[in-house]
Specification:
By secondary structure, the chain is α/β, with parallel strands linked by helices. It is 40% helix and 18% strand. It has an eight-stranded mixed beta sheet with strand order 1-2-4-3-5-6-7-8, sandwiched between helices. The N and C termini lie far apart (62 Å).
Length: 283
């Protein structure tokens, strides 16, 4: 019996090694902590960390609140086959440290504009998830020349229950209360700063969406923390926009529907914007 268990364990280890050797590179590349491609850009008073993968037209990836480059682990290997992917740790997140007390979405949008300028990129395709979607919208509003096409998922224009579910608001408030009652070390203060920003921002008027010149793919989950009605409102106020609501999905569309998400965004990037007529029944 003992020999049987030893044999079984040896087979398990062997199979594990074979599986690891044949597992896609997504599990072997330390996205967000890859010294081979990671660099810092000294811009706007901070060192903004970014990693670059692939060749081709530039594609900027912007993660959500409290996230990092690793959040794009299902998108980087897919899009880097076609694009030069620039994945960034936003200000005060990941490896892009920022000790200041002030933080808002406009600052981050201007960071991305400065990064593209630093990299001598006139314009780029952009994908933004959650807060990254907010940053993408502001980048297209404040620096329209920098955005060729924009794909966003789970973005909001305002704080509060008109855009965010009641459960989402309660979760943010509860987390802030716990953190404010805890020991105020540097990491805790930084997390409070990030959550407080979500609590009071953004404030993007619908009229600002009318200024966006590039095509935009607006996405969200049907059970997203961002209310689908709010996502619809964003879509309705951008001159050249498409809408895609993922079924049976919460806020994590880029993970839950990673394959469909990637294909849909790639199709959007590679085909000219066309607004079909309501009488167009043919595919």
């Amino acid at each position: 019996m003992k020999n049987f268990f030893l044999f079984t364990f040896a087979v398990f280890i062997l199979v594990g090694k074979i599986f690891a050797q044949n597992t896609p590179s997504i599990n072997r590349i330390a996205y967000g902590n890859n010294p081979k491609v990671g660099k810092y850009a000294s811009i706007r008073g901070i060192n903004l960390y970014y990693e670059t993968y692939g060749q081709g037209k530039p594609l900027l990836l912007i993660h959500g609140n409290g996230g990092s480059i690793r959040d794009w682990r299902y998108q980087i290997p897919y899009f880097s086959k076609t694009y030069k992917v620039i994945a960034v740790d936003s200000r005060a997140q990941g490896k892009s440290q920022d000790s200041s007390d002030v933080l808002n979405y406009e600052m981050m949008a201007d960071d991305f504009d400065a990064l593209l300028t630093h990299l001598k990129i006139d314009s780029a395709y952009v994908i933004g998830w959650s807060d990254g979607g907010i940053n993408g919208l502001l980048l297209a509003i404040r620096h329209p020349e920098k955005v060729k096409k924009l794909a966003i998922t789970g973005a909001n224009l305002v704080p509060g229950t008109s855009a965010i579910s009641a459960d989402g608001i309660k979760a943010i408030s509860a987390d802030l209360a716990k953190l404010r009652a805890a020991n105020q070390d540097a990491a805790t203060k930084n997390t409070i700063k990030l959550l407080h920003m979500m609590e009071i921002e953004p404030h993007i008027p619908l009229t600002d969406l009318h200024k966006i010149k590039c095509p935009v793919l607006v996405m969200g989950g049907d059970f997203d923390v961002i209310k689908p009605a709010h996502t619809l409102q964003i879509f309705e106020n951008i001159p050249q926009a498409y809408l895609w609501i993922f079924p049976e999905s919460g806020h994590g569309t880029v993970h839950r529907y990673k394959d469909e998400f990637n294909k849909k965004v790639l199709h959007f990037f590679t085909h000219p914007y066309k607004r079909p007529k309501w009488v167009d029944w043919e595919p």
